[in-house]
Amino acid sequence: MTTVATPAPRRQRRKTGGSKWSWAWVALSSVAIAGYFVGQYAQGTLDSLAHQEVGLAGTYAPRALPIQVAFYVHIVTAGLALALGPFQFSRRIRSRRPRVHRCTGRVYVASVLIGSVSGFVMSMFSSVGLAGFFGFGSLAVLWGWTTWRAYRAARQRDFRSHQAWTIRSFALTYAAVTLRLWFGVLIFAQIPFIHGADPFTTIMREAYAPLPFLCWLPNIVIAEFMIRRRGLPSLRMTNSVAAARGQVSGSRA
User: Is the distance from CB of 120 to CB of 198 less than 8 angstroms?
Assistant: First the structure.
């Protein structure tokens, strides 16, 4: 059973130069990938892009029209969420422009909820089969769930929980960036060991295979570490059976 443990509030630390550079890297990489993510599929139809071997066009071009619509919806909404996400963590915007923070937050939430549904539909037709369905499908479900929890906490004015769930949500949004980083790393790692008539195809196939899980699992682990380090409500696993036995023994005593 998963519960949320709420530690005692800690005194906020001053933002250091390192954290500013980290935020700048996250913001720049998010905006860059969002622009690339959307721009590469705005250059033509899926059929024409599939012939040019652009991204995932070859996977979804042969699919039925509803699947192609889900693909384009996911591209737009996920790109928008990725571009807006980093600015939800800007203290300057939250303190000086709270209305802007709320408006962009609502757009982010709507983009994620729509993007998670369309992403789950896409996972059923992944080029890596069941690994893609379970990996990307789990990502889509958790992405929507964490974002909904962040929104609900804000509506309840539980801002510490809101911050924690927003960190988890954006960690999953940032999978769009880490997927491409891991893809590049795994491609270069194979180059010295791959031989054959068509090594490029083999390298690309092997590099993409673990990405349905690798693109987001480390992110959510790092997010939970950041949440605990900041003293925000963290997730912990509890044994419900042991807890129930403890309650029974306590009542008997």
Answer: no
